[in-house]
Design a protein that fits this description.
434 Repressor (Amino-terminal Domain); Rossmann fold; DNA-binding; 42% helix; homodimer; 12 strands; six-stranded mixed β-sheet
Chain lengths: 351, 351
DNA sequence: CTGAAAGCGCTTACAG
DNA sequence: CTGAAAGCGCTTACAG
């Protein structure tokens, strides 16, 4: 309020204590709502707190109490809407619990991930939510993080196995998602269904392929090996690989895609060949990114509710902070089919 | 490495000092790369640091030195791709400078904004990057933040004026962007051009409308008042308001939209009326969100390069930390037209 | 080139 | 119900 040239200097507990003629201990008790303090004293202190514009210094409190009210969130990249939603969910739930989110991005680089974690660790997070960069080495991560800081691994399994390493794990039900998509297409009458996109060596791709196989097995059908086409999980790569679907006759009439980016790329690839998803070829994605609902046609897909996953991840790490001794838990988050317009029954494609 | 049941307990400077037969002061000097320390001593300390798995406690250092290596980033919502990109840029630049990002989301609520700021302030950020919630009151914010913590306001002006309040300001060149879009449509032969979407009382909307007027003025044309149609800046609202464009004859043949969300909604609204953007009506957006490049048709728009803006915001706040006394600076970030397929010359729409 | 002492802003036993 | 003292993990003068 007063126009000061020099920065005012922080108001501390001591200042407030002095001005109210009390000890710092008493003011501290007021701050944390202790019932030990007399109501009059409390009122007096609170007035003084307000008057001086006191701001609690959580860092000092944490140092003294050897606690931390921060949780580090390490993700690939916020420009991926899936992770942006996830981060929003994490931040929301952490804020509600009185924690602050320390953000770090790896850009899918294992080296940057080490650097980012090292830096975040210096800020003494109570726990870490880590969506590992592709190719992350569990042992190396563990050597860096140590065993003082609990970690929740999200989405991707670490190479040497997460659960065994004693870290919690939250995964999407990849297998069930792909099974749901495949079953739905089978119900629609399709028999020649491709699994399109993704890399065989990624754990999520393996799991989704497994769900695809499962649905075929349940239907008593054996999928042809050439219906499995690999490609990098990007729109561009997928568009470029579209041709691989039609090299042999009879070609597939439908595809379960590794993710939405791939599905969107496939739809573009189909357009380029004079075909249209939902009209003469059925396409199902995975993720339900925001674009899926506004593509043309809107994409039928498997939704993973990333924001809800974020909240769940935050809850899991908070729970771990409350009870550090309970054995590591591995959670599989549900997933569901969202029907839009990119699929259709077999008849139409035969026409 | 050793399977401990009980948590290991933090390794401190004292531990390392003791083990190397030195004082804490010396170890501290090693940590910060002081040239005062003998090379041999340094080597000895560094080996011990590694051996014990020492992790620097930046919070303790900051407390002692009365410094902070955190910057708070308060935004509306990460699920908005514009802000997600912005946040990614901020985080990237802060990380490079050795700072950590404290994340907070307001969800466009002025009350939550107060709460989030209060909470972040307790974590003692060196500075704050604030993209204010709509309707934010500058005086109220300033009362909360005080004048110890520098603030960079991004994107939206505060109600009582930012610059006067002594805070730095980074804005998009809204006016120039809208002028570029309008001029381009005029060049294409359009004369009846709507300004579609946004709320009159938001400063960015006012500025964009001003750019629109400017282009008309330069062309010596007076726009009709009914070409200004308001609506909330969401896809859904925009789709619903599409009809307002065609209530009077002759109707506009083109629209400059408040933002991409509105433009996408308008394109949907046009489709519903049997029209198609880029074919018989010209549409230009603002923001260049990722969806703009994959909509159907891809959207011609004004790009604000949000990631680059994020980096810029981080640079500005870091600069302010270096020199707290320099007068508040107000920066206007450039903006440019990205041509895609949702516009077209007038002739085609006349056909 | 290295060490002893004080202190950043808090909280936690321990007295009274 | 309130206060005096010690200490969280660091850094900063000040000596030597």
């Amino acid at each position: 309020m007063t126009p000061n040239a020099s920065p005012p200097g922080r108001v501390t507990l001591s200042d407030v204590a002095k001005a109210s003629g009390l000890s710092r201990a008493t003011v501290s008790l007021v701050l944390r709502g202790s019932p030990l303090v007399h109501a009059d004293t409390r009122a007096r202190v609170e007035a003084e707190l307000k008057r001086q514009g006191y701001v609690y210094h959580r860092g000092a409190a944490n140092l003294r109490g050897r606690t931390s009210t921060a949780v580090a969130l390490v993700i690939n990249d916020l420009s991926n809407p899936f992770f942006a939603e996830f981060a929003a969910g994490v931040d929301e739930a952490l804020a509600t619990a009185g924690f602050v989110t320390l953000l770090g991005s790896t850009g899918e680089s294992v080296e940057r991930q080490q650097a980012v974690l090292a830096s975040l660790l210096e800020h003494d997070p109570a726990g870490i939510i880590l969506s590992p960069a592709e190719g992350s080495d569990g042992a190396r991560l563990r050597a860096l993080v140590g065993d003082r800081t609990p970690v929740l691994v999200f989405n991707r399994q670490l190479h040497d196995g997460t659960t065994e390493a004693g870290w919690d794990f939250l995964a999407l039900d990849n297998q069930r998602g792909a099974r749901l998509a495949t079953e739905y297409l089978l119900d629609l009458g399709h028999r020649r269904i491709a699994f399109f996109g993704g890399h065989r060596d990624s754990s999520s791709c393996r799991q989704r392929r497994e769900g695809y196989r499962e649905a075929f097995a349940a239907a008593g059908i054996t999928p042809e090996p050439q219906w499995l086409v690999e490609c990098a999980p990007t729109r561009l790569e997928a568009a470029g690989q579209t041709g691989a679907l039609f090299v042999r006759d009879p070609a597939p009439t439908a595809a379960v895609c590794y993710n939405d980016a791939v599905a969107l790329g496939l739809m573009a690839g189909l357009s380029a060949r004079g075909r249209r998803a939902g009209h003469d070829f059925a396409v199902i994605g995975f993720d339900d990114i925001p674009e899926a609902s506004v593509s043309s046609p809107p994409l039928t897909t498997i939704a993973a509710a990333p924001r809800e996953r974020g909240r769940q991840a935050a809850e899991l790490i908070l729970q771990r902070l409350r009870d550090p001794t309970q054995p590591p838990i591995s959670t599989v988050a549900p997933v569901h089919l969202v029907l839009r317009d990119s699929d259709m029954p077999l008849q139409r494609s035969a026409a």
